[in-house]
Amino acid sequence: MREEEIETAIKVVVVGNGAVGKSSMIQRYCKGIFTRDYKKTIGVDFLERQIEVNDEDVRLMLWDTAGQEEFDAITKAYYRGAQACVLAFSTVDRDSFDAVESWKRKVEDEVGTIAMVIVQNKIDLIDDAVVQPNEAEALAKKLRLRFYRTSVKDNLNVDEVFRYLAEKYIDEMNSIVEEDNCQQKIIGSSGFLNNYSKENSARKNDRNRDRDTIILQPSKRRTQGKKSLFGTRCSVL
Predict the structure, then answer these.
(1) CA 156 to the chain's CA centroid
(2) Is 3-177 CATH 3.40.50.300?
(3) pLDDT digit string (tens) for 47-94?
């Protein structure tokens, strides 16, 4: 495959209580549509969208998971292999906000630490909010996660959420590659130093063998009052 044909594929799971707008968010992002009709997700749903991040083609595979507990056994299986996650709650649903940490644990129990973001959806209903702005910000700070306020209805910050996750994942992958390259250089340098030490030791042994054969003593008269060439110590760092 030619280099220009290679693309990065990122599996993103969108989790949170039912009716917080997970399906609407994915529909808006991938299809550009919004509907007021609520239809409960049964199990999981899947959509994808291709974007460009830093001149690199990225395919986002978005998995919309059911928020009801009766589907936990099904949805957990779809967390596996995820590389990024949206933790969503609704501005007008206090229970969904209180459940954010629980959703984070559920995902991490299956996939470990991945790129995550907290999303407060339905910000267009701020007049009916049951979650105070400082509460949401404090939670994001506690969990050390980026926080976005979105309105799927008004298409506010939806694109920004998924672009952030794509950029964060790519940055993490690049950091891992750089770290691996650095370790390989260190290993290579260690091998060179080891070989150098062995060769240096071999030369010293040769000189010692020569000394066993012929030992030359300097004349006290000739060296008196002159500095020795070996008077200064040198350390090899």
Answers:
(1) 25
(2) yes
(3) 999 999 988 899 999 998 775 655 666 767 888 899 999 999 999 999
Which stretch of DSSP H or E encloses residue 49?
Answer: strand 44-53
Q: How far is CA 35 from the centre of its chain?
A: 33
Report which of 80, 76, 158, 168 is spatially closest to residue 120, judged by C-alpha positions: 158
Residue 191 has pLDDT above 80, yes or no: no
Report d(CA 126, CA 130) in Å as an integer.
9
> Is the Cβ–Cβ distance between 68 and 40 less than 8 Å?
yes
Is 0.85 surpassed by the pTM of this model? no
SS3 at position 181? helix
Q: Which residue carries 């290993």 as its tokens? A: 187
Q: What is the pLDDT of residue 205?
A: 56
Q: Between β-strands 115-121 and 84-90, what pairing exists: parallel, antiparallel or unpaired?
A: parallel
Widest CA span in the chain: 107
pLDDT of residue 188: 61
| Structure-token pair, residue 60 | 């986002």
Could you give the strand order of the β-sheet that contains 115-121, starting from the edge strand earlier in sequence? 44-53, 56-65, 8-15, 84-90, 115-121, 146-149
Beta bridge partners of 60: 10, 49
